[in-house]
Amino acid sequence: MELSEAVPAPANGDTDAAATYLPGAAFLATLVPDEDPTAEPTMRVYSPEEHVVPYEITRWYEEQVADQVERCRETSGR
Questions:
Q1: Among 24, 20, 27, 29, which Cα is nearest to 7's?
Q2: What is the pTM of this model?
Q3: Left if phi > 0, otherwise alpha if psi is -120 to 50, otherwise beta: which for 5?
């Protein structure tokens, strides 16, 4: 799983369309092991620049990771 800052999508010439955003480069990545349910997730921070992440976004991301861990452990029978 990755957390990245949203970046505007390239313009395609359609001026009536609402602004669209795409994921930028990830600055927080979490590896959720799905083959070994006893292994704990690991997080890696990529930050050549300083990123300020609001607390609520951090909590939301951690909840998403916890949900993914739970799904992986349920499917593996743990």
A1: 24
A2: 0.71
A3: beta
In a domain, 41, yes or no: yes
Q: Is residue 12 part of a domain?
A: no
Residue-by-residue pLDDT tens, the chain, 78 positions: 999 888 888 876 554 455 688 888 888 899 988 788 788 889 998 877 777 888 999 999 999 999 988 888 887 765
Instruction: Report the 10 Å Cβ neighbour count for 32.
Output: 19
User: What's the CA gap between 34 and 38, in Å, rounded?
Assistant: 9
Q: Is 9 in contact with 24 (CB distance < 8 Å)?
A: no
Flag whether 38 is in a domain: yes
β-bridge mates for residue 45, sequence order: 28
